Amino acid sequence: MTTNEDRQAALLDALPAVTEAELRTLRERLAEAAGAGGILDVAYRTLDTPVGSLLLAATERGLVRVAYDSQGHEQVLAGLAAAISPRILQAPRRLDPAARELDEYFSGRRRAFDLELDLSLATGFRRVVLGCLPGIAYGRTASYGAVAAAAGSPRAVRAVGTACATNPLPVVVPCHRVVRADGSADRYLGGPAAKRLLLNLETA
Amino acid sequence: MTGKQPFAVVVADHGVTVLRVCRAVVGGGDADDAWSETFLAALRAYPQLPDDANVEAWLVTIAHRKAIDITRAAARRAVPVADVPERPSAQRADGRDLDLPAALAALPRKQRAAVAYHYLAGLPYHDVAAVIGGSADAARRSAADGIAGLRKTYATAAGPEGEEQ
Fold it and tell me: Which of A56, A151, B13, B136 could connect to B129 by a Cys-Cys bridge, CB 3.0–4.6 Å?
């Protein structure tokens, strides 16, 4: 803009400012209307937990993604835009059941999750592996080899490791209960400290 | 695979600008509805938007259509007596000047739109013309006439006449 343009634009600076509260109200209304209109493909919120801020995202079919802070929430949302749909809004209401159950889990009052899950981000053998994980009881662990056997491919130990490392629903689908054959809690997509915290929580 | 950002990012990046535009074009009372309808329509169409589209110009185009709808609906609702807007702040103590939102509201619709889309949304006149119709030169004249009109009714220290207070 020319200087003259700047001066004319400055004339409009006297318009009332838009406040954060006004915007929040508008965003909430938009999320409600989008959900009611069936055009909110992915709703998300964050939840503060003992393992840090978790991103929770759900499609109309169910919980589709849980992500640790260390995985980069913005990156994860960008990935959801590419893999599922860019119609993504912060809309806590759809995540109310998941947030409530996770709160109960972290306070030791819940041992199993009773949530609709959308496993569309996992395909093929990875999805088979994820389907086996809820079979590992709360407070117990299983080796990668045992999970491979349960998934019907005893030799696919490494593929089980990959399935756990790419689990789109950590904590809820308990890949943290899969450990090395010597029982040590090793690598984890949320970091080894988070894995130990979850296992300790479950044996407390 | 699409390169599009989550729509939440679009709202975060452009929500303020679109609300300022809506306030300027339809006035304070209907601006929230115009904003909501704009972003709802945008969300619906977002997957089909080309990845390289100018998102702000696209949002302004939608807002412009919603503003026309809302203005027409308001005109249909209007009862002659209730039609006279009650704006206690419109007339300032010196009896000459409107406050800025009222001064904007008093502009002809095309001038108001040209001022909002160019000066608030930052669209070049070529894009403003694409939204409101006509040529880029006509859009430039509308915006200039609008600014001149504001200067007449709204006293400001920013004016070239230097009306310091």
Answer: B136
